[in-house]
Specification:
Structural class: mainly alpha
Largest sheet: 2 strands, antiparallel
Number of strands: 2
Number of helices: 15
Radius of gyration: 47 Å
Shape: rod-shaped
Low-confidence stretches: 410-441
Order of helices and strands: HHHHHHHHHHHHHHEEH
C-alpha cells in the first residue's frame, strides 16, 4: 500500500511538471505586463524611449521571476538537511524581497495607481476647503465689531443732535464746540463702519471665487478619463485657489480697526470752547472731558477686540504637490490593501507551488525509507544484482561474509563518524532464500 501511495505521488509530480512550468511562465508574464504599466508612469522622455525602456525593464523582471522560482522549484524540494533547508529559505526570502522591490509596487501602481492619484486629489480638495473656510472666518471676524461701532457712532450722533436742539449737555443749545466734537466722533465711527462694510463685500466676492475653484477641482477628481491630464488641470486650479486664500488673509479689516482704535484716543483733538461767557466755556470744557473719557473707553474696547481677532493663527500657505501613480500608491498604501495583496500574490504565488512540491517530495522520501529494500528495487536493479552475485560466486567470494564484515564497519565522512545506515543489501543467495521459504511454510 505504501509503495502504491509513493508511486502515485511520484506520478502526480511528473504529471504537474508541465503545468508548473506553464503557471510560472504565466505569472511571470503577468507580473511583467503590470510592471510595464507601472514603470511607464515613472519615466520621462520621448514616447519611443519610454516604451523601449519600460519593455526592457518589464522583460528583465519576467525573466528574473521565472528563473528564480524555477530554480527554487527544482532544488528546494530535494534539499533534506536542516542547514541546507535554512540556507534555501534565506535565499528564498531575499529573492522574494527583491521581487517585491522591483516589481510588486509597480504592479500595485498599475492596479490602483489612478485611484491613488484621485484620492490624493480628493484629500487635497479637503485641505484647501478647510483653508478657504478658515481664511473666510478670519476675514469676517472683524464683522463682529460692526454692531459696537454702529452703536457708538449713533450715540455720538444722537448726543450731537440733542445738544444742538436743546443744549442737554451744556445747558445752551446751538452748534458749539461740543456739537462739533460729537459730530467728529460720529464721523470717525461712520468711516469705520463703511470700511467694514466694504471689506465684507470684498470678502464675499473672494469667497465666491474660491468656491468656484473648489467646484472645478471636485469635478476634476471624479471626472472620467486619464488621471494625468486631470492632475495637471487640478494643479493650475490649486495655484489659483491658493492666491484667493492669500487675498482673503490680506483682506481682513482687523488691523485697520486696531489702528483706528489707537487713533481715537491718541489722536483725540478737542476743539476750543467757544462759549460767550466764562460759565458756558467751563461747562463746555467739562462735557468735552467727559467725551474724551468716553472715547478713550471706546478705543480701549475696540483695541482689545481687534487684538483678539489678530491673535487667531493665520492660514498657512499650502502647495499642491502632484504625485505619480507609483508615488501615490506608496503614500496611500493602507487604503489600497487589496491591490497590494493582488500585486504581491502575482509575484509570490510560485512560492506556494515550491512548498507544495517540497511537501510531496518529503512524503515520498519518508514512505520509501520505511519500505524494505526488496520492495524498492526495480526489475532492472534485481537482474543487475543477480549478475553481480554470480560473478562474485564464480570468483570464490563469500558474499554473506563480506556483507557481515561491511556491517561491522563505521562509515565516516570528512573525519566525522556518521550513524549506521540501514542494511539495504538483500541476500540473493538462492539456497538461503529457499530455506527461508521452507521455514515460512
Amino acid at each position: 500500500m505504501a509503495l502504491g501511495t509513493s508511486q502515485r505521488l511520484q506520478d502526480g509530480v511528473t504529471a504537474v511538471e508541465t503545468m508548473t512550468r506553464f503557471a510560472l511562465a504565466v505569472l511571470a508574464l503577468a507580473s511583467g505586463v503590470y510592471t510595464y504599466l507601472g514603470v511607464r508612469s515613472l519615466l520621462d522622455g520621448s514616447p519611443t524611449a519610454v516604451f523601449f525602456a519600460a519593455i526592457i525593464y518589464s522583460a528583465s523582471v519576467s525573466v528574473g521571476i521565472y528563473a528564480f522560482w524555477s530554480y527554487m522549484a527544482r532544488f528546494y524540494p530535494h534539499v533534506t538537511s536542516h542547514t541546507g533547508r535554512a540556507a534555501m529559505l534565506c535565499v528564498m526570502a531575499a529573492g522574494a524581497a527583491m521581487i517585491m522591490a522591483m516589481s510588486s509596487w509597480l504592479n500595485a501602481a498599475a492596479l490602483a495607481g489612478s485611484a491613488a492619484v484621485e484620492q490624493h486629489l480628493a484629500e487635497t480638495v479637503q485641505d484647501y476647503t478647510a483653508d478657504l473656510d478658515r481664511a473666510h472666518q478670519n476675514a469676517l471676524a472683524a464683522q463682529s465689531l460692526l454692531p459696537d461701532i454702529q452703536r457708538a457712532g449713533e450715540r455720538f450722533s444722537q448726543l450731537a443732535a440733542v445738544e444742538r436742539q436743546s443744549g442737554a449737555l451744556t445747558g445752551t443749545n446751538g452748534s458749539g464746540s461740543v456739537v462739533q466734537l460729537l459730530s467728529q466722533m460720529s464721523g470717525q465711527m461712520k468711516e469705520l463702519e463703511n470700511g467694514i462694510n466694504a471689506s465684507r463685500e470684498q470678502v464675499t466676492e473672494l469667497f465666491e471665487q474660491g468656491q468656484k475653484r473648489l467646484e472645478t477641482m471636485r469635478s476634476l477628481v471624479s471626472a472620467p478619463g486619464q488621471v494625468a491630464p486631470r492632475s495637471d488641470q487640478f494643479s493650475a486650479e490649486a495655484v489659483a485657489l491658493a492666491g484667493v486664500i492669500t487675498s482673503l488673509a490680506q483682506t481682513s479689516i482687523a488691523p485697520s480697526i486696531r489702528r483706528a482704535a489707537d487713533d481715537l484716543s491718541l489722536g483725540f483733538i478737542a476743539p476750543v470752547a467757544d462759549g460767550s461767557d466764562a460759565n458756558l466755556v467751563n461747562r463746555q470744557d467739562q462735557v468735552m472731558g467727559t467725551i474724551r473719557a468716553s472715547v478713550a473707553a471706546q478705543s480701549k474696547a475696540l483695541a482689545k477686540a481687534a487684538d483678539e481677532i489678530l491673535s487667531n493663527a493665520p492660514v498657512a500657505e499650502r502647495r499642491f504637490v502632484p504625485l505619480s501613480s507609483a508615488e501615490a500608491v506608496l503614500q496611500y498604501a493602507p487604503d489600497f490593501i487589496p491591490a497590494w495583496a493582488g500585486a504581491i500574490s502575482i509575484d509570490l504565488l510560485p512560492g506556494v507551488l515550491v512548498f507544495i512540491l517540497a511537501v510531496v517530495h518529503g512524503a515520498i522520501r519518508r514512505q520509501e525509507e520505511r519500505l524494505p529494500f526488496a520492495e524498492r528495487i526495480t526489475a532492472a536493479e534485481l537482474l543487475k544484482a543477480l549478475e553481480v552475485q554470480r560473478a562474485l560466486a564464480a570468483n570464490g567470494v563469500d558474499l554473506e561474509k563480506a556483507v557481515a564484515d561491511a556491517e561491522k564497519k563505521d562509515l565516516t565522512v570528512d573525519g566525522e563518524k556518521e550513524e549506521d545506515e540501514p542494511n539495504n543489501i538483500t541476500n540473493l543467495d538462492a539456497r538461503s532464500r529457499r530455506d527461508r521459504l521452507n521455514e515460512d511454510r
